[in-house]
């Protein structure tokens, strides 16, 4: 059996939000890489350079301006964090003076606020790797500099979350000093951030230690972003990436971005020649195909074999992605009784030869019908290479619907609303507090669903919802950035109480589409009342 990865299909623990499908400088201007390579990955979020970028990472020319790439990011359902010090041309950043820096901050924030058609900005990252790039001799102590910069941003933008301190590796004592200072000054980041660039082995311990530190300082739990992960020797190794993703998912990280080691416009090595996937792309494609709920995986330890998994109860499909181990190993699945007495198990693999070598498809290994005994199953994965990624798909032997029809709202791209839980909601989750519609659109609330359909036609879209407002409410509906329609939601028995549905129609092209339901959005004048979203279903 070798090493054993246990997958508890009956133990869901979070929505499928594809937390680690993100990239530092993932997009370049002029639509690079192509939308067709990004939509299957369900890109969660990106860290992009500041407006007016001067940064030349790895010798690249300045590029990836967050406001200029925003239309493409929006087309693929991705949010953006803006890295402010990338206004400088050199790295490490060449500090000039406080007058110069604060003037740059003012310019960047005003540029973002004036870009009224941009609504996908998730946060301001005030600095990058200050544990070695902050010029203390010229700028003073970083903790004081953080407070000055934080207040300068907040003087102009009172709502966009602030991200930091983005240190180059997890360092408890450094964070303790920073957090204590920020708490005293009232400038705590909304999203805590550091980098994991050396190995996935310590991620679980680092996040557990951070949570303990946070608690000891009397700080309420922060959202966590690891906006650079994987070393140069790891980022193109599917097996190693499987271990990173598994640990981020289990630890409750909100977003994680592939580190930038190469060129703009390749999502950091996932795409070559703008449209061709590399071997590692297929691992993220498997990740993008996950739906329903993430389910608990238990590796033998924090080194070696690891993986992540989902269960879509509407199609009765278990997806498992694993790697980082050589030899013959085992996936032990439990809680799969709902799939029936026999199941079809498909196994495939992917290998990256180089970031310049395309991989037109994953490599099939086996497709076998197994009898399920005692609600569990052992799947042997033979002759694994530690560098390769592996995909195990388990579904009823009698077949499943030909395409995903139900999309959970909490699995979608959620902008300025909240993922919440309710026992009556499909898969136990929904999106509420979709409350904002403003003339500037920077705080508009909406949910984007990236859907994949087999044929171009008009589909009936059933929406599960709740509306406890006592009167009918509306939301805007747009497909692929097209013209706006309106969905009406009659009043229901109460907020957070689901079972009601409403129907509308949408014209979809074959393949991937982005459906937006909005309280407010660029091009839409705003909705009336409020509605909470449980799911959409296409038929």
Automatic annotation (TrEMBL):
Q: Where is the CBM6 domain?
A: 405-539
Xref: SUPFAM superfamilies: (Trans)glycosidases, Galactose-binding domain-like
Q: Which domain of life is it from?
A: Bacteria
- Keywords assigned: Glycosidase, Hydrolase
- Asked if the record carries the keyword Hydrolase, the reply is yes
Which GO biological-process labels does this protein carry?
carbohydrate metabolic process
Q: Where is this region: Disordered?
A: 46-67
GO MF: carbohydrate binding; hydrolase activity, hydrolyzing O-glycosyl compounds
Question: Could you tell me what this protein is called?
Answer: Carbohydrate-binding protein
- Which species? Microbispora cellulosiformans
